[in-house]
Amino acid sequence: MPNLPDVVLWSIPAFVLLTVVEMVSVRIHPDESAAGYETKDAVTSVGMGLGSMAFDFLWKIPILAVYTAIYELTPLRVPVLWWTVPLMLLAQDFFYYWSHRGHHVIRILWACHVVHHSSEKFNLTTALRQPWTTWTVWPFYVPLIALGVHPAALAFCSSANLVYQFWIHTERIGKLLRPFEFVFNTPSHHRVHHASQGGYLDRNFGGILIVWDRLFGSFVPETDRPVYGLTKNISTYNPLQVATHEYAAIARDLRGAGSWRERAGRVFRGPGWQPADSAPAPAGRAVTSGSAPAQP
């Protein structure tokens, strides 16, 4: 097994330090038009992050078993060397893009990912607002394991990707140098991703690199100031409700469905999907995958 560091664990002191610096910066030099901080929201985000670490440990047991079985079956092997690690990071980022995009356009996957978009604030604590049901992510990386990437190497690359994305959850950094903005994901690009305006919905899915969005037609630059959150916000700070509200909405829709075709659509179509013969969605109801369906 490759001997690779736990990137997330080693980064925790930096997470804490940068968050404190951002909080102080917001207090000393407030931006009246920025979303800023709210104590309850920040506490909820931190709580979601801690819960995610605990649940991820549980989900990793069966996922690791599947990955290990696939790795043992494939005759291919990718050695962990100084020049292969950057290539594995690049490949992992490519599959992350498709995983992230899939979690926006398939409702049962969105039920997991919506947690990360549920805050109406955008700051470094928002990066910690992670889902508790990440068992939906693992199938997207099966090709890497089948190509001979060791599960531990994949875990290292995934952790590095997650750590990179911490610093882009901020309004305190404007646009960076043009070449950097062209290639890499930045705070400007990620503010667009977290916005709830129609033109910004379901855009900028990249993890470390933004070039995937440019290549596959999902890139939008930041122009108007983003409005964060969902098109129909959930208005709760209860971590359990934040983690499960979309699963509950799916269950309600399934109970009210009139056919198996509609049931399949409620689960596997986009989050705002409605059957063709249904009444138009009421004003304010989610109609795209950038939001959660309206709550009663």
In short:
The chain is an all-alpha fold.
Write the layout of secondary structure elements.
Blueprint lengths: L6 H22 L10 H35 L10 H22 L1 H11 L24 H5 L4 H14 L13 H6 L3 H7 L17 H6 L22 H18 L3 H9 L28
Helix pairs in contact: 3-4, 3-6, 4-10
Description:
There is one protein chain. The chain has one domain. About 50% of the residues lie in helices and about 0% in strands. It has helices at about 5-30, 40-75, 85-105, 105-115, 140-145, 150-165, 180-185, 185-195, 210-215, 240-255, 260-270. The longest helix is centred in the first third of the chain and has 35 residues, at about 40-75. The radius of gyration is 19 Å and the shape is globular. It holds the Pfam family FA_hydroxylase. GO terms for molecular function: glyceryl-ether monooxygenase activity; iron ion binding.
Q: Fraction of residues in helices? A: 40-55%
- Tally of structural domains: 1
Oligomerization state: single chain
| Helix run count | 11
Order of helices and strands: HHHHHHHHHHH
Major sheet description: none
Subcellular location: Endomembrane system
Domain Fatty acid hydroxylase: 86-218
GO biological process, one term: membrane lipid metabolic process
Transmembrane segments: 7-28, 48-68, 80-98, 140-168
